[in-house]
Amino acid sequence: MNEFAKRIQRLQDRLQEKRIDGCMITQNVDIYYFTGSMQTGYLFVPSAGEALFFVRRSVVRAQGEAAVRVEPLGSFRSFGDRLAEVYRALFEDAASSSRRLRLAAEFDVLPVQQLQRLEAVLPGAEWVDGSMIIRELRMIKSAAELACIREAARVIDLAFEDAVQTLRPGTTELELMSRIELFIRRQGHLGIMRMRGYNQEVITGMVGAGEAAAIPTYFDGPAGGQGLSAASPQSAGRRPIQPNEPILIDIGCCIEGYVIDQTRTAVIGNLPDDLVRAYDTSEQIIRSIEGRLQPGVVCEQLYMHSLQMAHEAELSEHFMGYGDDQVKFLGHGIGLEIDELPVLAKGFSYPLQPGMVIAIEPKFTFPGRGVVGIENSYVITENGFEKLTVTREGLIRL
Amino acid sequence: MNEFAKRIQRLQDRLQEKRIDGCMITQNVDIYYFTGSMQTGYLFVPSAGEALFFVRRSVVRAQGEAAVRVEPLGSFRSFGDRLAEVYRALFEDAASSSRRLRLAAEFDVLPVQQLQRLEAVLPGAEWVDGSMIIRELRMIKSAAELACIREAARVIDLAFEDAVQTLRPGTTELELMSRIELFIRRQGHLGIMRMRGYNQEVITGMVGAGEAAAIPTYFDGPAGGQGLSAASPQSAGRRPIQPNEPILIDIGCCIEGYVIDQTRTAVIGNLPDDLVRAYDTSEQIIRSIEGRLQPGVVCEQLYMHSLQMAHEAELSEHFMGYGDDQVKFLGHGIGLEIDELPVLAKGFSYPLQPGMVIAIEPKFTFPGRGVVGIENSYVITENGFEKLTVTREGLIRL
């Protein structure tokens, strides 16, 4: 059984457990995960039997890419009748037991209009949210997925070393970011890191120095950044980088669809003692978390442990953002998207499992002065973890 | 009255016309359009009275950016009670006439989960689709918006001239694209061009040459492109550009939130006669369309006119893509997003109005050989049009 067939089989197992008759997958990334193609259309996965990818555009290209059977979507108006015909047993089984067909869709990303269109062509169906099922399946990575993430880790390491080597007083954040982006783009970076969250955007991460890095923003991460304008209010701005201030380089790239996410802190000259101490605390936290990274450990506990360590270092107020703008997590899953499961945060009771890939990012924010911290990405293994990030650690003194 | 107050006033006029009590705006771009800030939260615009921006994150930053009053969102659970308290007259008016409060949201982009959350905190309300109201308001640009688009046009022209000057046989599409991206990024390009369409992504447009440019893809545009992999199946790939094949350079940038979109066709050496003729036809079409660009002309008629011209040139099969992969439009509105109204396509009966900004892109696709064409962006004026694109026209021979 090929990898895509296995993924679909696992989805079908979950659908059966939850007594859902089928799942209608529409989001580009989810379609890619289950088919190997990112053409537009509707991937219908019945609770049992063959999945079919009804493609709007491009049918020819989907036929060459997809691991599941491709059918031209044709007229959307007749899509409901078409499904009822192809999946007759499924539809008849529901009808014969006088119940509505129960179908799942990705309610976390599916726009309301799109659901209404589906409801119109399948008027007898009851729609339920299938997004957690899909996100939980995607949480565990295969060997092929890990290979892509390792390649992204290799590329971002080269880009990082290239970038810091040319960093001088007066280099602007945007110049530094542009150089990183050029490097990774030439290596095959997609140009963005895909995010699932509504209204969230990340181009290549966040490069920020001194007070600019500590400016809060809408972005759901511990460091905000000045950005270019109110129309792009995060990450790198046009401020020249100064000596003796922390330079936060929180970057990633997307290679073959898979992202990596890492952070290093650099300085031209020296940092004040209290910021060095905060940086050292971030490394102590990540080392202590590493000691707990093994199957069975509960995600929430890792977050609580980091809060405790920040508290003991008397840095609670600065941990993962400052004051009202603190974010309430220590790390997040990565894969095809930058905001995958699991999240290391309160309320996430997932036990760690082999194949989970998690970016862990203890950081400390000092308003008016900057952000320091570290972030590595890890895969959980049978016995513990493997660090995927290959970039050298420690405060990078330039 | 400032620009943002005028925008909100126009929205309120439309809400009153449609007997909608208020509009809950949640999408980052729409929030920016009405407030000048892109922080996350809920912008509530009642059909009459003061709009309020309930901000989740960052409140401090929103207070500094937004032209409307900002309130911390606080607990989402009590958001419904909060609204009922602040907009007591509105809620009581609905209650006293025994009708449900009628609220609009952006159903074209709002994920189902987000609507369900709103329904849960405002259980008495009836939700309707307000996306066309907002998209139609945004269709007409102000002087300030036009200034941003003109700046983007200036930047992309410089990037284009810089890029073609270094183009040599063997330069890959990705190298050419990376160079353009570096140039525009350093000038303040956001890094992507925002798109409203579900599953649609555009980083910096489409650079493709020869057969690679003619490969169809999911992207809703006339040229597809090979892309980097099945996980990024459009635009530039790694193929070296050859002499005597068409090089399609369909690019844009996003400056202060506003995009420009333009296409030029280049060649190292010479093109075969039939492709030169097709290119010339694209220029003839755009000249003929320019002759019709004035207030009152119906969008759909411009598209039908271009179909007619392609037919007369015996190039119908190649127009705007090839065969089954043809797209059914000639142009599209641009502004904060690359896929705005109006669309020059069948079924779009909007008459042109001063302030509309439209990218018009007649192109011809030859499978196995390439894509040729031209694209300019225009603003409709009182008497006709102004061309916003400043890049030199004609087939660019290198």
TrEMBL record, chains A, B:
Output the InterPro entries linked to this UniProt entry. Creatin/AminoP/Spt16_N, Creatinase/aminopeptidase-like, Creatinase_N, Pept_M24, Pept_M24_MAP, Peptidase_M24B
Please report the stretch or stretches of sequence annotated as the Creatinase N-terminal domain.
Answer: 7-140
CDD domains xrefs? APP_MetAP
Residue ranges of the TM segments = none
- What highest taxon heads this organism's lineage? Bacteria
What Gene Ontology molecular-function terms does this entry list? aminopeptidase activity; metalloexopeptidase activity
Enumerate the spans annotated as Peptidase M24 domain. 147-382
Q: What is this protein called?
A: M24 family metallopeptidase
Q: Which organism is it from?
A: Paenibacillus foliorum
